[in-house]
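About this split. The held-out portion is used to measure sequence recovery: a designer receives only the structure tokens and must propose an amino acid at every position. Recovery is the fraction of positions where the proposal matches the reference. Here is one held-out target exactly as it appears in the evaluation file.
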């Protein structure tokens, strides 16, 4: 069985910090990460989506975590076709047109430079490319995926789709074959079912090195409400126990399995991660 790592999609979320999960004396930037890394072995840097990560932060993250800890870094929004505010760019790039190929090249360069300390310290788990809901399957999308994989060839790439058609029954094998050809990990997700925007509950394995599952909660507002509404959910033990057979299967087929909780608010994600870990230890 591969190594199974459980964590959350952020350790700096404002609701988590305000929840009291971090004890007194460990609520500064360094204390929070050290406290988190004593309890979990992987975390997702979702802040990388909202602003370019920095080399300095990557160095600090490496210094503040034990050997073997993993950071899965979410790709900057401009690299996955999401709307991007100019204010999210470094100051010296804000005068550029967001469609300028030279700007895109520079953003890729700076994003990669920020990952380098994590790579060198052995802490880079994956780079998550989460594509938007309107990114549906077809020749144009496949061309984007090939171009992305070419840019990111030095990194362990994980791909999450938000358009359900990628994993529809009549399309799933083709999607899995495409990701295998790109040497990319297919990200499985847990979301509410029965909604127009629900992602199929599939767990494809497209890489022998890494499998990733992201638990987004089961809110009925998935795909329609505010961020808090979309991800607000408290997983029950029964809901998490239902995933145990699939997680074991994924761990049997990949060297590492990263299970990340993205449900909010407050401390819901860390509590869900703790419950799942307990279920796996007792089963």
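Reference sequence for scoring:
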């Amino acid at each position: 069985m591969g190594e199974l790592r459980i964590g959350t999609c952020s350790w700096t979320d404002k609701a988590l910090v305000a929840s009291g999960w971090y004890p007194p004396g460990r609520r500064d930037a360094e204390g929070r990460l050290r406290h988190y890394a004593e309890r979990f072995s992987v975390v997702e840097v979702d802040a990388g989506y909202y602003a370019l990560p920095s080399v300095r932060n990557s160095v600090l993250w490496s210094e503040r975590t034990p050997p073997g800890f993993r950071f899965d870094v979410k790709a900057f929004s401009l690299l996955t076709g999401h709307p991007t505010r100019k204010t999210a760019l470094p100051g010296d790039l804000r005068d550029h047109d967001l469609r300028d190929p030279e700007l895109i090249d520079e953003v890729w360069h700076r994003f990669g430079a920020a990952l380098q300390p994590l790579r060198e310290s052995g802490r880079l788990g994956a780079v998550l490319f989460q594509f938007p809901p309107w990114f549906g399957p077809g020749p144009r999308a496949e061309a984007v995926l090939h171009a992305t994989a070419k840019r990111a060839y030095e990194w362990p790439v994980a791909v999450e789709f938000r358009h359900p058609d990628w994993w529809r029954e009549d399309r799933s094998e083709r999607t899995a074959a495409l990701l295998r050809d790109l040497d990319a990990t297919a990200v499985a997700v847990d979301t509410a079912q029965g909604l127009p925007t629900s992602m199929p509950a599939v767990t494809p394995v497209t890489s022998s090195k890494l499998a990733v599952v992201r638990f987004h909660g089961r809110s009925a507002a998935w795909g329609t409400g505010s961020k808090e509404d979309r991800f607000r959910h408290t997983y029950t033990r029964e809901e998490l126990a239902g995933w145990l057979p699939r997680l074991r299967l994924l761990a049997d087929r990949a060297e590492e399995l990263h299970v990340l909780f993205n449900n909010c608010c407050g401390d819901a994600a860390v509590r869900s991660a703790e419950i799942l870990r307990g279920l796996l230890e007792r089963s």
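Annotator remark: The chain has a mean pLDDT of 96.
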